[in-house]
Automatic annotation (TrEMBL):
Highest taxon of source: Eukaryota
Protein name (Swiss-Prot/TrEMBL): Fibronectin type-III domain-containing protein
Species of provenance: Cnephaeus nilssonii
UniProt keyword list: Glycoprotein, Membrane, Receptor, Signal, Transmembrane, Transmembrane helix
Main location: membrane
Bilayer topology annotation: Single-pass type I membrane protein
Assigned GO CC terms: external side of plasma membrane
Compartments, record wording: Membrane
Organismal lineage: Eukaryota, Metazoa, Chordata, Craniata, Vertebrata
Single GO term (MF): cytokine receptor activity
Amino acid sequence: MGPLVSAALVLTLLDPAFLLTQDSRDLPTVERVPSLSVRFDPWRMNLTWDCGENTTSIQCGMTTRKKGPVTMRLKENQCHCTFPRAVLRGAPNFTVTANIGPRQVTQRLSYSNPGGQGTAAQNVSCLIYMADFMNCTWDKGPAAPDNVQYSLHIRDLRSGSRRECPRYLGDTGTTHVGCHLQGASAFGSEIYILVNGTSPSAGIQFFDDTLMLKKIEIYDPPDNITIECNASHCVLQWDTPRIRVFLSNWELQYQLDIHRQNSMQPSDHQLVDISGAWRNTYVFQKPLPRAKHAVRMRAADSRLLQWGPWSQPVEFGSGEWLSGAFFISMVILGTLACVLIFLYLFNR
Ligand SMILES: *[C@@H]1O[C@H](CO)[C@@H](O)[C@H](O)[C@H]1NC(C)=O
Ligand SMILES: *[C@@H]1O[C@H](CO)[C@@H](O)[C@H](O)[C@H]1NC(C)=O
Ligand SMILES: *[C@@H]1O[C@H](CO)[C@@H](O)[C@H](O)[C@H]1NC(C)=O
Ligand SMILES: *[C@@H]1O[C@H](CO)[C@@H](O)[C@H](O)[C@H]1NC(C)=O
Ligand SMILES: *[C@@H]1O[C@H](CO)[C@@H](O)[C@H](O)[C@H]1NC(C)=O
Ligand SMILES: *[C@@H]1O[C@H](CO)[C@@H](O)[C@H](O)[C@H]1NC(C)=O
Ligand SMILES: *[C@@H]1O[C@H](CO)[C@@H](O)[C@H](O)[C@H]1NC(C)=O
Ligand SMILES: *[C@@H]1O[C@H](CO)[C@@H](O)[C@H](O)[C@H]1NC(C)=O
């Protein structure tokens, strides 16, 4: 993102008539204007400027169309400020205000997103699954030429480490429309993503955003699901699924789908929501053993309820006809019958 930065110098003389109303182009340029040489590093989201001996910094700010201006007061000798969650695709403006000697100077830096409207990747969305994998997908911008090529760059907001997508998912042609990566468990709670692009025939705008990983993670189904039934009840138990960061039981939610095996009819499916606080055990009344039953489970964060995939169904209650007391009495009856027939035949 090197050449995206262009600086505009705005000098507000201490004359209040010039304040706010004047743009840089209208200003008299009779005097040599002291410059702060404001620079912006998009990877560190770091705005820096030159602090001469007689410079006292006052404030820095960022203006976006969405959020308007956000300003920060500065320490006198502070010569940089960071906007860790900044999103740059809307071409924000940065400002630094400082006193250079007796004069107050506000310098503005416009960050641009060059390229045609509608050339940026669209509908960018990312998903974390199996605790360590991340998939991102996007659509080619409608105004982007067919020879566009996109790349995805990721920065971890906690460590500052960055990486490019190691494995792109291609469309029918060669345009990248997604990314698959492993190592998401090493990320902090938030990442910055940038999808930029090139094309020999047009300028391509970039798309960027910050993502809270908690909001894009889907959980594996619970592990080691077991079910044991007696004549009247069934006890279901399971292990907490693997999740990227530790969550207490209270923050987990499970859903059960108890159903007649192989039945698609909604009336044969009983959905049960269970809080993780129930310590991974659920006791329910055994369904009538007329048909085979099965149970499957899925998990989610209890506050977001973004359900993960279902587990494999676990069969239960099947063949219970022939088990337990019923099975034993059948065996006894059968044996008795055999003995009686044998005795009858033998005594004839
Ligand atoms: C921003 O840049 C300044 C000056 O180069 C440096 O001292 C500071 O550590 C940087 N901050 C970050 C968060 O990179
Ligand atoms: C800083 O200000 C002092 C007093 O106004 C002046 O003598 C000195 O030359 C200035 N230094 C610079 C680097 O402008
Ligand atoms: C940034 O400044 C330019 C020049 O004054 C202006 O046209 C543009 O709308 C500003 N952008 C934002 C996001 O405020
Ligand atoms: C992508 O997003 C645009 C709006 O930004 C929407 O009109 C379009 O239907 C979306 N495309 C897909 C494939 O979801
Ligand atoms: C993620 O992408 C990989 C590679 O294309 C694919 O095999 C997998 O099914 C995807 N997983 C999810 C949950 O989308
Ligand atoms: C996309 O951004 C990355 C990171 O700033 C940069 O290294 C790369 O050159 C950019 N690609 C294009 C096509 O601008
Ligand atoms: C599932 O059960 C097996 C055997 O008891 C155990 O080794 C394994 O660690 C369990 N899996 C999980 C995720 O707890
Ligand atoms: C069956 O299991 C349930 C739940 O564990 C228990 O409350 C009940 O007493 C048991 N019934 C029989 C007949 O063992």
